[in-house]
Amino acid sequence: MDNKEKIEWRKFYDIKDELFKLIFGNTETLEDSSSKFYRCLCFTQNEEILRKIKNLTKEMNKQYKIASKTKGDYRESPIVINDVENIIINSYDSYSSYKIEKGSVIAAIGSIQVSEVSILKNFWGKDYQKNLKKYNLIENENKNSIFIGCEDLLKLAKAKVIQRRNFTGLRYTLNIRKTGQTLSERYKYGIIILDKKPTINYANKEAKRKHSLSIVGERVEFPFPAILNCDLFIKEKE
To answer: pTM score, two decimals?
Structure first.
């Protein structure tokens, strides 16, 4: 990044800081589900503050496009919505997923943590080293971790394809209905500024779909106590 690029990014962050201070210093927070990203409903009836928020948001997005050299707006751009009567907050479990397939690059070079050194030493006792070799497990004693190569995982599970799934957090959306409307519109839940205090409700969490992996999927089973940071499902057997 050269000096010119640094200057453009500095301009962007200066505008962003000014905008966020304006919002959080001059509005009432009605709901806050922020974690890694801002997710909050803010309220003010001050028309001058609302006007400044709109103008600074436009200025921030314009500068973001210059600095990032992209056409899209900044992902945490605030939105001002007028005359809202009802808001329903929806949340969903979100996952990332990929296949471990026999003969693939991932299978050849990848590995997955499957347990802990202390747990398997206690479980196997004097047979600990023998069983590490038996199941082709990889020991990292400094991190108290036991790994298995993806090819060896496929052999252990007697599978051609395994689906690895990681929980990545909650995904949020809003159903927003304005005064006089009968139908709501769906919005991404970010920084929302309102000029009226609406009724805010939380949707009941949706039941898992009948065909979801967590219900119908066959999980990989291990012949030892497994400690996993992901879900492993057999998609295709040998």
So the answer is: 0.70
